[in-house]
Amino acid sequence: MGLGLLGLMACRAAAAEPAPVHSLSEILVSDPAFSELRPDSVTVTIETTIPVVCAAVYGLTTAYGALATDTDMAGGGHTRHHPVLAGLMPDTAYQLRLQGVGPDGTLYVSDNTIFHTPPAVAQAENPLGRNVALQSVGARVVAVSSNYGGGAMDSPFGGDNAIDGNPATEWSSAGDGDAAWIEIDLGRPVALSGLGLQTRTMGTTAQIGRFRVVTDSGESLGPFNIPAAGSIYTFPVDANAQRLRFEVVASSGGNTGVAEIEVFAR
After folding, report:
1. Distance (Å, whole) CA 232 – CA 196
2. pLDDT band at 5, cuts 50/70/90?
3. Which structural domain, as residue segments, surrounds residue 207?
4. CATH of the domain at 190
5. Is residue 11 part of a domain?
6. Is the dihedral of CA 188, 192, 196, 200 positive or negative?
7. Beta pairing, strands 107-109 & 21-23
8. Where does the sequence pass through the membrane (predicted)?
9. Same domain, 138 and 90
10. How far apart, in Å, do the first and last CA atoms of the chain sit?
């Protein structure tokens, strides 16, 4: 009885020991980089020498208040990280701290960093016309090859994210690779003048390199090449359609998907 109690006390004492804390710089391949810096969001790109579970805390002061986790959905630790800091205000200084937990429970924490969002500016008129593939103007996603985790269209990685006008949100398939597709209904027949697509990425996977679009009349547009992630690439077209099915032709495999789709009409 006494030995059992002593054993229990020893277990509790061991469990109470805090995990070691180290500087994040010990495991960084290079300094964190800010990409897709927008008035309301930014992506932080981090590469580590060991697999860690990564998170970012940020806010107007060093009390932070907002939390962003990695966009990699494979589970567990990994070495390439892309947390998206959303809900930001234009032309504002923010405090940021990055942290990760290693396989042995070691906590790695960065120094505080300050970044500044750009001011809000009026969007320049696109020479291809106006974007009609937006939920706000009546477009909707009617079908997808799959949503990550089997979620609904309005889930965190559901199809609706492809046409919400916010590249910081993403539609992700559930590992469909080159077989991924998403179908959009514009709500009415439209004379198309252009198409746009920004691929999602998980560093070495989930990135679309080439896609095509099939209209509801069966016309095939493309294929179109996407050189890199991080930007929307646009392509002039001349077609008429109400429904458009965006199909992946070539990718780096995995949870392929898009950050944003645009369809232009004059």
Report:
1. 6
2. very low
3. 130-265
4. 2.60.120.260
5. no
6. positive
7. parallel
8. none
9. no
10. 83
